[in-house]
Amino acid sequence: MTVTSRTFRSGNSDAVRLPKEISFGPGVEVEIERKGDVVTISPKRKSVKEMLAKLRSLPKPSSIGVREEVEIPDRSGL
Fold this sequence. Notes:
By secondary structure, this protein is an alpha+beta fold. Helices cover 12% and strands 26% of the residues. The strands form two sheets. The chain has a two-stranded antiparallel sheet.
């Protein structure tokens, strides 16, 4: 999707309003990359450290189930 907007001054910085059709929503931290005339804005990815911390914060299961062993058929020629 392509939309049009204009830059404006906000203090000592240039700013651009993201129209509702392409906005990320309020409070989303973004990364901005410039290559020549092309500026790319994308939501900031969490670091591996942040993702591991989030996984560790998930509730622990009350018990751990045991899977039945799966028999793998012999397929000759593979």
